[in-house]
Fold this sequence. Notes:
31% of the residues lie in helices and 25% in strands. The chain is α+β, with helices and mostly antiparallel strands.
Amino acid sequence: MSFETPLEIPVVDFSSPDMNPGSSRWDSVKDQVWRALEEYGWFEALYDRVAVELSRKTVLGSLEELFELPLETKRRNVSKKPSHGYCGQFPGIPLFESIGVDGANITQNVESLTTTLWPQGNQRFSKKIQSYSEQVGELDEIIRRMILESLGVEKYLDEHINSTNYLLRVSKYKGPKTSATKLGLNGHTDRSYVTILCQNQIDGLEVQTKDGGWITYKPSSPHSFVVMIGESLYAWSNGRLHIPYHRVTVTGNEDRYSVALFSMPKEGYIIRIPEELVDEDHPLHFKPFDMAKYMGSTVLGQEPDLLYRPSYPY
């Protein structure tokens, strides 16, 4: 992995069978992960423990069937949590629609969604979604363990992992049928601890660099996943990591599909910065806060009483 130019995408290989905590291989990959997230806030992960058949053929391949459901059916997927249900039909981004699966690694949660969309049920779809979420969730736990070890606060690992709820969000970006580039999704940062994304053969993800430029992401392998830091982990780490601002653009005739697994703090979990991460060089950035309430208050236009909030490009 190289960091010689700001437009170069860090690539980290997790596929080695002997990568166990404490091994030299683990420590090498951990160092690459830390440097990538500290400087860029994201990287491409090569992870062959999720079979290509499951990620790109089975899950991504089933999304066309899902999004072809009638609009009134897709809108049955509702949630009190912002951005957890059906999203779409926005005038500013008409090519985008998305469906969330809250607790996507839990059987009854996935089956509840599928029976909402398919009254007769759809075991085939629910099994694909749950299996994918479980396997990608394992990569999420590996990455977060490496981050905590790099920070020297691995004693909080169990609490940190147990505070997690997994949200799977599947998205469609309709091909605009033009050679001109159209906006698929506005620039934003994620609210998650970590986001892990897989896309079909249609590119479109763009990530902003610290100097204001944009990197267009193109997977280098069938085993490629995008890993991004979200606001929750940025806050928990007291600003030690970079949050990548990103967007989606689309062009041409083909539809773009993506699957993103977000590790989110559970509702009611209070994010507190470990005392070990506060010192003269790293003063306290945030008061303890509940990310679920923070998400609701910002949607309503009411800023929560945080000591500090990151400044975003928008």
